[in-house]
Design a protein that fits this description.
GO terms for molecular function: long-chain fatty acid--protein ligase activity. It holds the Pfam family LuxE. This is Acyl-protein synthase. InterPro entries: ANL_N_sf, LuxE. The chain has a 7-stranded mixed β-sheet with strand order 6-5-4-7-8-9-10, sandwiched between helices. Strands 1, 11, 12, 13, 14 and 15 form a 6-stranded mixed β-sheet that branches. Strands 2-3 form a two-stranded antiparallel sheet. It has helices at about 15-25, 35-50, 55-60, 115-135, 160-165, 190-200, 215-225, 255-265, 375-380, and strands at about 80, 100, 110-115, 145-150, 175-180, 185-190, 210, 240, 275-280, 285-290, 295, 300-305, 320-325, 335-345, 360-365. The protein is an alpha/beta fold and about 375 residues long. It folds into 2 domains: about 5-100 and about 305-365, no CATH class; about 125-280 and about 370-380, 3-Layer(aba) Sandwich (Rossmann fold). A hairpin with a 2-residue loop joins strand 9 (about 275-280) and strand 10 (about 285-290).
């Protein structure tokens, strides 16, 4: 068994028994767990209310009837993800903080998220179970990695860097290349190093895994074309798993279908082996595209869409703020977070894949903000490169 699939125990088995049962569900897209999810959310709310005056105050507000994401009688107080850019709110003592991650680059406002061991291990196990579901855990198959993320540095606490390096645990590395190289005083995007790595990997006999920010991969493919380089055919079994969005470079963003087709044309990786993801340091539950490129909601969470003016829940198909709910987190009262992303929610049957859970489409960021995310900061490294 992959060590990331091993059992993990909640901090208080008596107070969080339903949270434990929910997070122990091994099939990531199982259905029929609504009652268990509601019970787990009730335990999570009680846990945070006892430990966080901030969250206890939120529970004094009149409840929605019914709560749109988990059912009648279960509270889902709304906390904007941006709240964590300005406030540090913990539900565990600081000496129980196992990991501290941030959401932004080297300047600007950062979400400060603190994880006890249960929370981060539970989130990692969710990722492992989804990778296992798709057959992407291959302990006997070495791969070459091209990581479109930050090269690790002693002071680096970015969630994206942590995640991408964690994903390398699912297949042994023959060789690893980072696109954003550490210089000693920051990071620089090494586009020519990426191209050289792809050319070298194409001649190797093991699959390639490309992980990280999509804008950097797109920029690499653009540069290869501009240089007149011929298309490559990466070895069979190669995989692209993207995350982080396009953020400040939306003006350079191309449509998903065109982007995926370009990956297939330039690198020889079929479309069903190219997947985008959604996640954040404020809500670490992983959302990974199916083979038809829909972000299905796993069994450990629920999603809703909120009107941008009133925050009232919206029906399937309408666009609004993405609201994500999961009781897994015990370190910070972030079990019900309203993201700054505009999205629409759709029923499972509207996707031709075998999964039955709801799925969502992210349409972009809401409004214009001075807050800088990891991808915004990273994208700035691309200025002047084209």
């Amino acid at each position: 068994m992959n060590p990331h699939l091993a059992p993990v125990e909640v901090p208080d088995p008596a107070a969080l028994a339903h949270v434990q049962r929910l997070c122990d569900l091994a099939e990531p897209y199982a259905v029929g767990a609504d009652a268990l999810f509601a019970a787990a959310m009730a335990e999570s709310n009680a846990w945070h209310a006892r430990r966080s005056p901030f969250f206890a105050a939120l529970l004094q507000d009149p409840p929605e009837a019914p709560a749109p994401t988990v059912g009648e009688g279960v509270r889902t107080p709304l906390v904007p993800a941006a709240f964590f850019k300005r406030h540090e709110v913990l539900s565990v003592p600081r000496d129980e903080v196992f990991l501290h991650l941030t959401s932004s680059g080297t300047t600007g406002q950062k979400s400060q998220m603190f994880f006890d061991e249960w929370t981060i291990r539970s989130a990692q196990r969710m990722v492992a179970r989804i990778f296992d579901h798709y057959g992407w855990i291959t302990p006997d198959q070495p791969v070459n990695y091209l990581l479109y993320s930050y090269e690790p540095a002693p002071s680096l606490k970015l969630g994206t860097s942590f995640t991408d390096n964690y994903l390398c645990d699912f297949a042994p590395a023959r060789h690893t290349t980072h696109a954003l190289r550490h210089t000693g005083s920051g990071h620089e995007f090494d586009v020519h190093g990426c191209i050289a790595a792809l050319q070298r990997y194409a001649e190797d006999d093991v699959p390639v895994r490309i992980l990280g920010f999509p804008a950097f991969l797109h920029f690499t493919l653009e540069r290869m074309r501009a240089m007149g380089l011929p298309p490559l055919r990466l070895p069979e079994g190669s995989l692209v798993v993207l995350g982080g969005g396009w953020k400040a470079h939306a003006d350079r963003q191309i449509g998903k279908d065109a982007f995926y087709a370009d990956i297939t044309e330039r690198l020889g990786i079929p479309g069903d082996r190219v997947r985008d993801t959604f996640g954040s340091v404020e809500h670490c539950v992983p959302y990974v595209e199916c083979a038809h490129h829909r972000l299905h909601v796993p069994v450990w969470s629920r999603a809703a869409i909120r009107d941008t003016g009133t925050l009232r829940p919206l029906p399937y198909g309408e666009r609004g703020f993405l609201h994500l709910v999961s009781p897994y987190i015990t370190s910070v009262p972030a079990q019900s977070v309203v993201m700054g992303d505009l999205a629409s929610l759709h029923p499972g049957e509207d996707c031709p894949c075998p999964l039955s859970t709801d799925w969502f489409t992210v349409h972009g960021r809401a409004g214009v903000s001075r807050n800088r995310s990891c991808a915004v900061a990273a994208a700035e490294l691309m200025k002047g490169m084209s």
